[in-house]
Amino acid sequence: MLVNADLHIHSRYSAATSQRMELKTLAVEAARKGIQLLGTGDCLHPKWLSEIKELREENGIFRFDEGLGGVAEKYGTAFVLTVEVEDARRVHHLLLVPTVSKAEELFEFFSKHSKDIEEDGRPTLNLNGEEIAEVARDCEALIGPCHAFTPWTALYAYHDSLKECYGSLTDYVSFVELGLSADSSYADRISELHELTFLTNSDAHSPSPIRLAREFNRFELRDLSFEELKMAILREKGRKPVLNVGIPPEEGKYNESACIKCYKHYTLEDAVSRGWRCSCGGRIKKGVKDRVKELADCDGTHPPHRPPYLHLIPLAEIIALALRAGVSSKAVRRVWEAFLERFGDEVRVLVDADYEELSELDEDVAAAILAFREGKIVVIPGGGGRYGVIRLAEDIRCESTENSKHSRQLSLLDF
Predict the structure, then answer these.
(1) For residue 86, how far is the Cα from the chain centroid?
(2) Can you give the three-state secondary structure of 131-153, one letter per residue?
(3) Which of 2, 243, 354, 370 is a plausible cystine mate for 400, CB 3.0–4.6 Å?
């Protein structure tokens, strides 16, 4: 079976998150997105874990028993225990936890090394990466770095290698989360990452359809359980990731080196020569692209196990581009709802449905979706904390319509 999964989100118990980040809302919104498996986030927070315990658990997977209007059952929305923690060097780590009892063990140990574990869903631990990985191993949890290249709270922001962070536990690390400003083509320029599975997750702080599952993974599993997910991440017994979906890395707000005050962009050489100070006096923050350039030790050829990476943005944002309207406008909302009513969820619209099916509903939106599938978009890179800008060519509808007559569109079944 093929399972779409977003494994890194946060609950309403994390700082700067929507109060709508609660289980029922997440179950419904994940179903509308086309996500069958959602990380709980924040599973060490006592109040959030108490709410999770009210769900029906089977083989490390949590579900609602109640109806939710039929939405959750129709799409099989399920949860797996996850948590993001910050270490003493400000590096963030994602843990996938097999059971409630193991989450409680993690809490018991980490609470001795944290001042905020009962207040913040993403706790800060007075431990280094190696110590956290050791505890994760002892509790049978999977671990890997979150948004590994982000310049503020990432492994490669403070370390030059996995071993520098995880020490003797480096071999236990089983995945790398790429983050919004990187994709497989970036990360595979670093040879130490070639054997690791890449995850693409949303890190959502809101259940909004432009936040939740803006990045997701597609796994091939035999059934839905923690052990099956673990085997897929470790690529064992035929289980594996078959597709990564994420925004174009240039759209990420830390893709290029830029001033965090005025957002002026700089080349790596210019930033170094200026001592990382902008002409306005602000600080120039090193971008992911330049950090990868510093660390790269190979040409970026993907290892045989690496799945395709499909660059997409949320459906509402694509509709807004096609209609030249605001993403929150009534016109965009009306078209978005029409596509979901016709096709069921966003994943089917964005990846699975044929162009001809989509164009029956709206030719301009269909052409815009096709442009993303074929990589025919223009991105003005982000940097310094400001997102990049995506543009569609003015003649994209005519060009895409012509192309659709000669080529079959990608389907999720192709991955």
Answers:
(1) 18
(2) HHHHHHHHCCCEEEECCCCCCCC
(3) 370
The model carries a pTM of 0.93
Cα–Cα distance measured from residue 350 to residue 83, given in angstroms and rounded to the nearest whole number: 28
Place of tokens 């890997």: 144
Residue type, 40: T
Below-70 pLDDT ranges, the chain = 66-75, 394-415
Residue 101 neighbours by CB under 8 Å, 6+ apart: none
Q: How many CA atoms are closer than 13 Å to the CA of 282, on its beta-carbon side?
A: 16
Token code pair at residue 318: 């694509």
CA distances from 281 to 17, 62, 141, 290 (A): 31, 50, 45, 21
Q: For residue 66, give every residue at least 6 positions away whose Cβ sits within 8 Å of its Cβ, in sequence order, or none.
A: none
Residue 328: partners with Cβ closer than 8 Å, 6 or more residues away:
none
Model confidence pLDDT, tens digit, residues 221-259:
999 999 999 999 999 999 999 999 999 999 999 999 999
- DSSP-H helix ranges across 235-287: 268-273
Write down all domains in the chain, each with its CATH number in brackets: 2-247 (3.20.20.140), 314-409 (no CATH)
pLDDT single digits (tens) 297-347: 999 999 999 999 999 999 999 999 999 999 999 999 999 999 999 999 999
